[in-house]
Structures are given as structure tokens and as C-alpha cells.
Write a structure and sequence with these properties.
The protein has helices at about 5-15, 20-30, 30-45, 45-55, 55-65, 65-85, 105-115, 120-130, 140-170, 170-175, 175-200. It is built from eleven helices and no strands. The longest helix is centred in the C-terminal third of the chain and has 28 residues, at about 140-170. By secondary structure, the chain is an all-alpha fold. α2 packs antiparallel against α3. The protein is about 80% helix and about 0% strand. It has one domain.
Length: about 200
Amino acid sequence: MSVEFLLTTLVVVVTPGTGVIYTMAAGLARGTRAAVVAAFGCTLGIIPHMLAAITGLAALLHASALAFQILKYLGVAYLVYMAVSTLRDKGALTVERDDTPRSARKVILSGVLVNILNPKLTLFFFAFLPQFVHTGASSAVPQMLLLSGVFMLVTFLVFVGYGRFAAAMRNQVLSRPKVLTWMRRVFAGAFVGLGARLALT
């Protein structure tokens, strides 16, 4: 495993995207536990990208403009849905004083969907990951599994860090209703912005 791969992984993961936004929103909503659960869900959402790269779906998407367009606009639609949900103050993105645990299954499912449709992950697994596989090896599958596992571990740890930071700011947000309103708008705007960028890709 090369230093270049680790640095590329760190840059891709640390750069704020849909998963980071969702995890931080979960931390603001329900605290550290929810942030960890959201980070876990986002990490699980990496698996389909990994499987697609290993099984050759990348080649299909590259060859079929229709398949790529379908995937892209599904991602756009889900990001718009997340933005609307945030503005309406519903779901896992609601910041509340009640610390009653929300359904972990729902938080994980949303995290999985966020990252399944994350164009940054698609780019990483379909374009960059194969570059770090040694062509001289008898099989590329074990290497890709190892590299993907490292990427998932780094993703989980970084997202937990983002989430814990957001959870630490939760009391300040809760005590200031205007801050809460603006936070919802910022998160919603971020989802719309990411959706617009994906649509124009």
C-alpha cells in the first residue's frame, strides 16, 4: 500500500461532501451517538461503489451514457429530498432537546443512501482506485478489497471526528433558535449545491 494512496484517501475523505454534511447534521440533531451511527451508515454506503469497481460496473457506466445519467439524477433527486427534509425540520436532521435515541436503522439507511449516490465516491472507486492496484499481481481483487477496506476505515474515523465536533457544538445551537434556523438553511443549501454540481457533471 503506497503513501500516495493513503494521502489520496485522506484528501477525498476529509473534503466535505454529502456524507460529512449528513454526519455533522446527525451530531447536531442527537449528539455523539447519532453521529457515530450516521458515520457507520455512510461507511456502509461505500460497499456498493467497491463492488461496482471490482465487478466491472465502472466499464458499463463508462460505455453507457444512459446508465450514468440515471445514476446521476437519482443522486440529484435524493440530495434535493435531503434539502427539503432539512428545511421542514423532519427526520434525522432535526435538532431537538430530547435525547431519546432515534431509530438507528433509519439513520443508517439514510447514511447508506447518501453515500451510495455520492459522486465523489463514484469518481474515487471508478477512476482512482484501479491506479493503485499492482498490475503484476495474479489477481487484482484482493488488492482492491484491501484498499477499499482502508478507505472505509479512514472514512469512518474521519466522519466520527466531524460528528463529534458537531455534537460538541449542539448545546450552543440549541440555546440559540436563530442559529438553529440558519444551520438548517446552511445544510439545506449545501445539499442543493451538491445536487446542482452533480447535475452539471
